Amino acid sequence: MEIFFLGVGETCDTAHGNSSSILTTSNGTRIMLDCGFTVPHQYFRTVEDPTRLDYIWISHFHGDHYLGLPLLFLRLWQLGRTKPLTIVGQKDIEEWVINLLEMAYPTFSRRIGFPFKFIAISPRATAHIAGMKWSTALTQHTQYNLGLLLQDGNKKLYYSGDGRANTRVRRLIQGCDFAIHESFNMVDTYPYHGSITSTLKLADEVDIGQVALVHLDHNLRKNEIQTIQRMVQDRPNTLLPVAGDRLNF
Ligand SMILES: [Zn+2]
Ligand SMILES: [Zn+2]
User: Fold this and answer.
1) Is 60 helix (H, G, I), strand (E, B) or coil?
2) What is the average per-residue pLDDT within 152-163?
3) What are the helix (H) ranges across 37-107?
4) Which of 14, 149, 186, 245 gives a 20 to 30 Å CA spacing to 211?
């Protein structure tokens, strides 16, 4: 799988954008992981052939994870997209997204020039979509947020969305090859977000191959960047990506 980081920040991070990535699987399927406020401009500015997008995963309904959808849809339409687009997420995904499209541009969702559909998945069952297994776990966040484990052949990628890992998440991601995990604070302080310290501990305890720390509080990143970089450099399998970074695993 290939990961291209579109943004690595939290809601208010003007330097690093909202956290989102483009995943290209071994069969060439392209999946966007979350689409917050800042994501569409970054996507259309930096991704080659932006109409080549097959799926969008929405972890939860906070603005830095899904409020970019109206602009993404609008621009894809403007670029002449005709092939179907599928949005995958938790229960009620269709209602949330249609309401959002209507709020941004009334009647737009009925006039859009390409077909789109929704797939709602639940932590109770693994879904089989585009030749991959999609399994989820409810994280500890202020809103219902699903962490997603994607299995492509023998490779497993976990994307946390928001929220601290709990026993459900630990069970899901045991031994996964790569994790993109929110790490909002330096240590666990606020109960509904993870931290750099707890993500590194999680990676050791559940045997994650490589871990990328994203969604850092922008003040923490600004004020403690040297300390954070030292923590990452001491660990060969830990990354602090920035927008534009691309890697294969
Ligand atoms: Zn959130
Ligand atoms: Zn967030």
Assistant:
1) coil
2) 95
3) 39-46, 63-66, 69-78, 93-104
4) 14
How many Cα atoms are found within 13 Å in the side-chain-facing hemisphere of 215? 23
Does the domain made of 2-248 have the CATH classification 3.60.15.10? yes
Give the start-to-end residue ranges of the domains of the chain: 2-248
Buried b (16+ CB within 10 A) or exposed e, 19-30: bbbbbbbeeebb
pLDDT of residue 134: 98
Ligand 1 centroid, distance to 60 Cα (angstroms): 7
Distance (Å) from CA 136 to ligand 2 centroid:
17
41 DSSP 8-state letter: H
**149 Cβ neighbours under 8 A, 6+ residues apart:** 133, 134, 135, 136, 137, 156, 157, 158, 172, 173, 176
Of the residues 13, 49, 54, 64, only one is catalytic, namely 64
Task: Locate 171 and state its tokens.
Answer: 């069970």
| Residue 64 is among the residues annotated as catalytic for this protein | yes
